Amino acid sequence: GGNVAGVSEARGDVLAFFNNDMRVAPDALRRLVDALAATHPCAAARVLSWDGQRIDFVRGTLNFEARGFQEHYGDPVRPELCASGETFFANGGAFAITRDAYQRAGGFDPSLFAYYDDTDLGWDLRINGGGIRVVPEAVVYHHHSATANRWPEGQKRFLMERNAVWAAAKRYGEPTLARVLGPMLLLALRRVMQDAAVNAASPLSRALAPFS
Question: Does the structure show a pLDDT above 60 at 206?
């Protein structure tokens, strides 16, 4: 919702998004804007840990559950992991996009509130023919979960699981959704149980064991 409100006030042809827990290198914004092109109207920053020693985001992928993954997350920074390349989605906390591409993709879905709103936007952008590239020279440092750590326990997990199911439901055709929705819900429940440290000997835990 905050991003949507910001877009409604912006007047430029390019939109840039930075979360409040990011430290942005002085030339990062310029490098992101310079990288925008007709074939790649969205450019993502290379995001590092707050101390710059580990990778936070160099490329994003998606699985069948519509859950987003940050490749090499937590790995030490190495030259071979710093190359430019395609990504399924941009890290929502540090990217630039042309206004035209953003609008064609439908923009951020405010009903998601937080988590997987960036994978959702990337999915729509690619459906509408827009490529997304990571710009390794545009460096941003992330204070991981600086905001989420103040939330009630379990809220982050709830949002992630709910938003992934919602994103899949929006885009999968009925035959595909019928095949994947059951496993999606079972895996989501399994993760919730693991977070809650449910007794492994309980009947529900045994029933879900094949999905762990």
Answer: no
